[in-house]
Structures are given as structure tokens and as C-alpha cells.
């Protein structure tokens, strides 16, 4: 690949590295600085991370707003500081034995459609210019406002009982049905919990960790995520044959103050020509991100000069479209309707 190339990669992020680590790996593999991603995945999470390079980074702001699908495991009976398995356990309560059907009834009644959701304090949301997780790690109280999100599907796939140990020094907290801790604890002090496999299709901005927390709260026992995998971002899917897998490796280095540090880094499982072959070119990348309108060479010139063009037929109100010259496989611009059958460019791409 050359530095003038642009496109998208669908990367299957492994567990234990950040989304930024994946971006760094792509930068190294392509020898490019202009690389970004559409939608952060927590280090614990795996799955689809859409990575843009070159001019395709301009598509990422559109892609990040797409609906997403996740597969996850929720552990009912334990709360953690981060609402996932990376946090510290703060309480353990015996979880009632519930069937998949009974859990689905609770989910259908309270967690589908448009709901109000309070994000976890350990999130990337900014408060007065600072990330919430930075404030939380510094011991500051973080209060985030509820925001509307849409849950298109929340399917309970399986539910199975497990035994969990309480954290050191923690009391189990009793049972929601009036049982004493001793009634539910085994001889070794473990407590019954319930692991629930789910599939969630949701709007952008939905926190699956918060769904796990809130489902646990609704049942009176607490909950957190033990597994999270993103299988889809819009029309970009993990099962796409061009998806690039990655793995983690340990890297040990010495800091400037002489401290030896070992950290995980992401390594792509494809490089060179193979990586180039798996990249989605600009027109294909844009057509997966938004509707496409075909324009002539003259219209392409107008758009690149910032002029409005007349578009045939009707266009979605307020929606963005990719203007393409199909004969030349040329992505010209992202346009939006501006009334009276006209469209204006909001992002213009150079000729590649």
C-alpha cells in the first residue's frame, strides 16, 4: 500500500487490548499516520472494530452512529465497580433460579424499545473536558445523566446457574426473598449466581454494561458483564470474509525513569498484500455506510468546488448520501438534501 491509499478495514479485536492499540497496529502495518476507528470497544470486549485509513477516516463519523449488535454474558448476583469483569466486586447476592422464558419476560417489559439509560461512571463520556473514567479512577464522584437509547432486540439465549465466591472481606448481602446468607451459601462460602447469554441489537451510544447492571438491579441481585462481543456495526459484520483477525502479544520495555513495564499490544494476523486485499475501497466502504446517489462528471466537479447539485427523485430528509461517479469508482462527496430537489456537499473527497 502507498500513503495515498484509502479504505476501511473490519478488524476482529481480541480481548486484552484497547481500540487505540488496534489503530496503532494498523498504522504500523500500513506505515500511515492517518488512521482512526468508529466506536470504542472496551479492553475486555472482542469483535468488530471498523478502522479507516487515509481519506476513509472521513467516513468514521457517519459509521459511529450506526446501530450495533452484541453477544454477551451477564452474571446476575454480583455488582462490580465498572459493571464488567474488569472491575472490583462490590457486592454478591444469591441469584434466584430463573428460566430463560422468565428472564425474557422481564427484559421485554423493561429493556426493549426506547429507554432511559445512565452510563457507567467508568466510561469515555467527557465531563467538563475530562473523561469520566479518569475522574472515577481519581476517586472523584461521577454522576452522568440518563440518556435515551433504543433497544431493537434483547434476546435471552441461555441461562445457567453457577457458583461464585464473594470478594475478600465482603458479606454476601442476603437474598431477595428473605433467606439468610447461610441458606444460600455452600460450605466453601460460594454463592449461587446466574449466567445469562444474550444478544442485543441497539442504537449507537448504548452501553451493554449498563444493561447488565440494570437487569441485575431490576431483579434485586445486581449484575455485570463477563463476556462482550460486537458482531455488527451497521452493515459491517464479523463474518465478512475480509475481516482481519488480530492477537495480543506481551511487550516489555523500560521507561525513562528506569521502571520495567510489561504491556499487551495488538498484532494483526495479516500484512502487506493480504491486508491490502482485505480493505474495503472507498466506494464500497461508503455504500455500506449510507445510501448512494450517482452523479455525472460535471456534478462531481461542482461538488468538489462546494456547489450544490440537483438530485433526481426523492432523498431521505436530513439523511446523508454518498455521491459517486460509478464509471470511475470515484467517491466524490458526502451530501445532504437542502430542499427543492437540491443537495449540498458536507464532506468532499479528492480524486484518488
Short description:
The chain has nine helices and 20 strands. The protein is of the alpha+beta class and 352 residues long.
What are its keywords?
single chain, 352 residues, five-stranded mixed sheet, eleven-stranded mixed sheet, 20 strands, alpha+beta
Describe the structure.
By secondary structure, the protein is α+β, with helices and mostly antiparallel strands. Helix content is 20%, strand content 38%. The chain contains 9 helices and 20 strands. It has helices spanning 19-30, 60-63, 100-110, 132-137, 181-184, 208-218, 272-278, 282-289, 297-304; strands at residues 7-13, 35-38, 46-53, 68-76, 78-80, 89-92, 113-117, 126-127, 130-131, 147-164, 191-202, 223-233, 236-237, 244-254, 260-268, 292-294, 309-310, 321-325, 330-339, 342-348. Strands 1, 2, 3, 4, 7, 10, 11, 12, 13, 14 and 15 form an 11-stranded mixed sheet that branches. A 5-stranded mixed sheet has the order 16-18-19-20-17, with helices on both faces. Strands 5-6 form a two-stranded antiparallel ribbon. Strand 18 (321-325) and strand 19 (330-339) form a beta hairpin. It is globular and about 75 Å long.
Amino acid at each position: 500500500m502507498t500513503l495515498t491509499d484509502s479504505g476501511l478495514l473490519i478488524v476482529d479485536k481480541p480481548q486484552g487490548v484497547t481500540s487505540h492499540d488496534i489503530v496503532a497496529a494498523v498504522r504500523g502495518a500500513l506505515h500511515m499516520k492517518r488512521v482512526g476507528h468508529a466506536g470504542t470497544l472496551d479492553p475486555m470486549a472482542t469483535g468488530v472494530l471498523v478502522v479507516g485509513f487515509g481519506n476513509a477516516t472521513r467516513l468514521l463519523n457517519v459509521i459511529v452512529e450506526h446501530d450495533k449488535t452484541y453477544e454477551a454474558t451477564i452474571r446476575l448476583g454480583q455488582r462490580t465497580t465498572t459493571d464488567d469483569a474488569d472491575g472490583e466486586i462490590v457486592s454478591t447476592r444469591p441469584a434466584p433460579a430463573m428460566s430463560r422464558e422468565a428472564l425474557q419476560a422481564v427484559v421485554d417489559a423493561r429493556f426493549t424499545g426506547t429507554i432511559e439509560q445512565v452510563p457507567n461512571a467508568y466510561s469515555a463520556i467527557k465531563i467538563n473536558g475530562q473523561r469520566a473514567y479518569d475522574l472515577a479512577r481519581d476517586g472523584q464522584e461521577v454522576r452522568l445523566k440518563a440518556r435515551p437509547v433504543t433497544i431493537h432486540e434483547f434476546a435471552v439465549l441461555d441461562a445457567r446457574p453457577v457458583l461464585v465466591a464473594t470478594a475478600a472481606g465482603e458479606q454476601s448481602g442476603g437474598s431477595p426473598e428473605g433467606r439468610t446468607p447461610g441458606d444460600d451459601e455452600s460450605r466453601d462460602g460460594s454463592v449461587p449466581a446466574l449466567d445469562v447469554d444474550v444478544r442485543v441489537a441497539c442504537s449507537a451510544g448504548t452501553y451493554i454494561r449498563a444493561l447488565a447492571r440494570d437487569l441485575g438491579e431490576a431483579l434485586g441481585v445486581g449484575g455485570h458483564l463477563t463476556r462482550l462481543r460486537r458482531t455488527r456495526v451497521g452493515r459491517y459484520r464479523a463474518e465478512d470474509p475480509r475481516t482481519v483477525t488480530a492477537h495480543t502479544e506481551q511487550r516489555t520495555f523500560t521507561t525513562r525513569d528506569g521502571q520495567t513495564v510489561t504491556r499487551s499490544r495488538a498484532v494483526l494476523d495479516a500484512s502487506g498484500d493480504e491486508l491490502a486485499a482485505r480493505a474495503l475501497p472507498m466506494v464500497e466502504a461508503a455504500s455500506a455506510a449510507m445510501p448512494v446517489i450517482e452523479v455525472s462528471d460535471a456534478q462531481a466537479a461542482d461538488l468538489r468546488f462546494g456547489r450544490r447539485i440537483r438530485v433526481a427523485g426523492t432523498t431521505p430528509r436530513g439523511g446523508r448520501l454518498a455521491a459517486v461517479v460509478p464509471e470511475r469508482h470515484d467517491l466524490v462527496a458526502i451530501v445532504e438534501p437542502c430542499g427543492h430537489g437540491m443537495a449540498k456537499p458536507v464532506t468532499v473527497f479528492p480524486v484518488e
